[in-house]
Design brief:
single chain; alpha+beta; Immunoglobulin-like; Beta-galactosidase, Chain A, domain 5; Glycosyltransferase; 4 domains; nine-stranded antiparallel β-sheet; 53 strands; globular
Length: about 900
């Protein structure tokens, strides 16, 4: 596990104040209006205005790399923070087999410094434009942007100060000797070997140049708008010395060998930089913004519950972060990705674990970004030959087994060497089903025939060969019920995989007129497959007795999602709900999908609370990221799926709007999302009322919609001529459609025309947002002022340290309030003072630690000085310098805090959480 240090010694990083702003009311929310545009078949949205309310804003410089804001162009990503100027860690998806040996640091410095002598500061991640802009007063602006559909990004500087004496841009790498090989790199030496160039074209660093798999990269930069000279500083650092100018752009690239002609990443980097300089900053910025604007206009989501848009804000931020690294030749890795501040240190896996990757990607069909999911699918479809060859070697079968943990080239080393995953058989079905869904959402018949069906057929044949038979019944004698139950009979994942895959394979085989001779065998398996086992009205993960648990997955609920075998309105819905209610590991990990299952089962309040729970547990940093060492992007991606499934479901070929509503009479939900068979679906709900269902048919398929008003009379109207196609008083309505035509399902008694037309918009966010009742925040506030500070969470009991007015400190709060917030004041020498936000008093450790800690000093003195000890596990300890004793939070938090321990233990550890 990687160590994530939460504090730095720089004073700016230790004074963790913040501005807490109220959540804006829903933009355009009114029970009497509607935003549906009958011409476009989507909601009227001022995307620029609406998305601006979800910008992530830092109102003070951030020196902590872990809090760095994330910006990317789909191929290359960077995390930015203020340390000796502007510092960014740069990475890309296609640079190395392990995704950790990727690019390096970029540092921009000026003399005097960019952050010297200013009075106002704001750094804004604009989701709509895809840019990161930092403003110091009105005379310094730094904008990080990208070139679309390339590996090039840029830093544009507007600096009108007089007297700027020098500007330098450094590209650097870390200590090559720390690079460790996990599995997939054939020659570690090439990743420890660096070459440089510095010439009239710019400067760069190259690694992995002799990698046998064709990986490797060149990290290089040049300048537009100012003269410069290039130099090699040392073996892992190059520099551009830039002649001071009031306006200039630094272009940089992480040029991959695998995507370069003749695997020449050096020349590729030079060509890329020359091309973007030729295009110019202004045009590139316009093209980049237009790329992101087009991305956002594919869909829309509004989800306001409890008077807060925080969950919605995370939805858009997570969408941005995944898409910003999601368009490479390889999918963005669920844990090592393109956004991390861990140098060359990999987290626990180089491989692609399907369970984790599906969390990152599966929501993007509904949000109308099938091209993103295709990037994920391509990893498997391009390796079909390698996977089949290994299946023959391992199982003596010419069918298809897909390892749960797979390398970039289809290798199974991460699977066969692990008892957790070596006998998982269902991954092939998941991969095949995702390919089939690409067809269902895009109507790409060529993809279905040439990519999806071969995968589906051979995955089905693998199961057909692997199943055992007892008389007429087919059963799975022994396999893993995913990672949690090993070598069990009739794993529910296998039975569900067969029941999902076989009917679809028969259907597609018939549709394509292929493999007619195989269909009878597949149907025979379906007709005689072993049943799921139940106990006390709930599904079991395998045939009893229940095996020892090895992980904390809720395996029995795989039936609900992603295997799509049950949900709202099924004969076994109650059994599935019972299974959810008694699931053994509620929200047990960063990849937990309980809230998606809740939405699929119509448990709207549980889905809402689940989204809150996952963010409370795992969204630890103000940039939206996590300190969890078991993953990074899964909880963000699964949040997208949970929200989409709460608003729209079409997995069973029925369009169902608002299927999982929270118990909030003030809930406001609006969306334009994509349903299977290419229906762009829009709907709005507020004041307890669903207003209409709008459908834009892209491919002319048959539509089937669930009546959101029960059995009230509804009608289907074609908007082009207002023709009424059908009127029914039933729970569902089916109707034929024509391609590129818009339809509205509306109540006869209250049609769409009874609502006034509106456009949805919003006001730009200017500060910090917080998720009520949790420590989760987005953004950073100013260094002083109300509402900010840092909360300290006692690891021993999970309680927040509280400083009531003139009283003893305790650790008994269950949620962050004013009394739990502290300014952490840097006193130099690694020492800090804690000042309570509640009463502006300093925390004291008096009388050699015998007395409880109190908060009653008006000025910092020796009693208020604590040594801050980074424990290397995401926590800190505080040691009173006056007596060298550690601060303790004992007895479940009921007793006062004291400072009388001689060594660090669990009672002395605290997690600092910026507010």
């Amino acid at each position: 596990m990687s160590v994530r240090k939460l504090f730095r010694t720089a004073a700016a990083g230790l004074i963790l104040g913040g501005l807490l702003v109220a959540h804006p009311s829903p933009a355009g929310a009114a029970p009497t209006d509607a935003a549906f545009n009958s011409s476009t078949g989507a909601l009227n949205v001022d995307y620029a205005g609406y998305l601006s309310k979800h910008d992530i804003v830092y109102n003070r410089p951030n020196t902590n790399p872990l809090y760095g804001l994330t910006v990317g162009n789909g191929h290359t990503g960077a995390m930015a923070w203020q340390q000796n100027g502007l510092t960014m860690q740069v990475s890309g998806t296609d640079l190395a087999e392990q995704s950790t040996y990727a690019a390096g640091n970029l540092n921009l410095q000026t003399s005097p410094a960019l952050d010297s002598g200013y009075t106002t500061f704001q750094q804004r991640l604009s989701l709509y434009d895809g840019t990161l802009t930092t403003r110091y007063d009105n005379n310094r602006t730094v904008t990080v942007l990208g070139s679309p559909n390339s590996e090039v990004m840029g830093v544009h500087v507007e600096d009108s100060r007089s007297g700027v004496g020098s500007i330098s841009l450094d590209l650097s790498l870390w200590d090559m000797n720390t690079v460790q090989n996990i599995a997939d790199v054939p020659d570690l030496n090439t990743w420890r070997t660096v070459s440089t160039f510095a010439d009239s074209t710019g400067a760069g660093l190259s690694r992995g140049q002799t990698d046998a798999n064709g990986f490797g990269y060149t990290f290089a930069a040049t300048v537009e708008g100012a003269a410069y000279s290039a130099q090699t500083v040392n073996g892992t650092r190059v520099r551009l010395n830039i002649t001071p100018s009031s306006s200039y752009t630094i272009w940089f690239t992480a040029a991959s060998r695998i995507n370069a002609p003749s695997r020449n990443s050096v020349q590729q980097a030079k060509n890329q930089l020359a091309a973007v300089k030729s295009t110019g900053y202004a045009t590139t910025l316009t093209n980049y913004r237009n790329w992101w604007h087009g991305f956002w206009q594919k869909s829309f989501v509004q989800y306001n519950a409890g008077g807060s848009d925080y969950l919605e804000n995370v939805y858009y931020l997570a969408t941005y972060m995944i898409a910003a690294g999601g368009y490479g030749n390889y999918p963005v890795h669920f844990i090592n990705g393109v956004f991390r501040a861990t140098q060359d240190n990999s987290k626990w896996s180089n491989g692609y674990w399907y369970w984790n990757q599906r969390d990152v990607y599966n929501s993007f069909y509904a949000s109308n970004h099938a091209d993103l999911v295709k990037t994920f699918n391509n990893l498997y479809s391009r390796n079909l030959g390698a996977l089949k060859a290994y299946t023959q070697t391992r199982y003596g079968s010419d069918a298809l087994w897909v390892p749960e943990t797979m390398g970039w080239d289809g290798n199974a080393r991460g699977t066969v060497n692990s008892d957790y995953v070596n006998d998982i058989y269902s991954t092939g079905t998941e991969a095949a089903y995702n390919m089939y869904l690409y067809y269902r959402y895009t109507n790409d018949a060529s993809y279905l025939q040439n990519v999806a069906y071969p995968f589906m057929k051979d995955a089905a044949r693998f199961y057909q060969n692997r199943l055992s038979r007892n008389g007429s019944q087919y059963y799975m004698a022994s396999s893993n019920s995913h990672e949690t139950y090993w070598d069990v009979k009739n794993a529910i994942t296998d039975l569900a995989a067969v029941r999902l895959l076989f009917p679809l394979t028969i259907q597609v085989s018939t549709q394509l007129g292929l493999d007619a001779g195989l269909r009878a065998g597949w149907q025979d398996v379906l007709n005689n497959l072993a049943p799921y086992q139940t106990q006390n009205g709930a599904y079991l993960p395998h045939d009893p007795p229940i095996s020892q648990t090895r992980n904390n997955e809720n395996v029995a609920l795989e039936l609900v999602w992603p295997y799509d075998q049950t949900g709202i309105g099924y004969a076994d819905t109650q059994t599935a709900i019972n299974t959810w209610n008694v699931r053994p590991f509620p929200y047990g990990n960063v990849w937990s999908n309980d809230h998606v299952h809740a939405a699929r089962l119509g448990l709207g309040e549980q889905a809402y609370q689940g989204m809150r729970t996952m963010l409370q547990k795992y969204q630890n940093y103000p940039n939206g990221m996590t300190s969890n060492t078991n993953g990074v992007f899964e909880y963000l991606g699964i949040h997208l799926a949970a929200m989409n499934e709460s608003l729209l479901q079409s997995y069973n070929d029925k369009i169902r709007v608002f299927p999982a509503l929270p118990n909030d009479t003030g809930f406001v939900g609006k969306f334009t999302l994509l349903a299977k068979d290419g229906f762009v679906v829009s709907s709005e709900r507020e004041a307890g009322e669903t207003k209409y269902v709008g459908l834009r048919s892209q491919f002319g398929k048959q539509a089937r919609a669930v009546n959101p008003w029960g059995t009230q009379e509804i009608r289907v109207r074609r908007t082009s001529d207002n023709a009424i196609l059908t009127t029914v008083s039933a729970g569902e309505v089916s109707f034929a459609t024509t391609a590129n035509t818009t339809y509205v399902v509306e109540r006869t008694a209250k049609p769409l025309s009874s609502y006034a037309s509106t456009t949805l918009t919003g006001s730009a966010n200017q500060g910090v947002k917080s998720l009520s009742g949790t420590a989760s925040t987005l953004g950073l506030g100013t260094a002083t002022g109300g509402g900010g500070g840092t909360a300290l969470l006692a690891q021993a009991n999970g309680k927040y340290v509280s400083a009531p007015a003139n009283g003893n400190l305790i650790a008994s709060a269950t949620a962050v309030g004013a009394t739990e917030r502290f300014d952490i004041v840097d006193l130099g020498g690694g020492n800090v003072a804690l000042r309570s936000r509640a009463n502006n008093m300093y925390v004291c450790a008096e009388n050699a630690g015998a007395n409880p800690l109190i908060a009653n000093r008006a000025a910092a003195g020796s009693w208020e000085t604590f040594a801050r000890i980074d424990n290397g596990d995401g926590t800190i300890s505080l040691r009173a310098t006056v007596n060298n004793k550690y601060v303790v939070a004992e007895n479940g938090g009921a007793a006062a805090l004291v400072a009388n321990r001689d060594a660090i233990g669990p009672w002395e550890k605290f997690t600092p959480i910026p507010q």
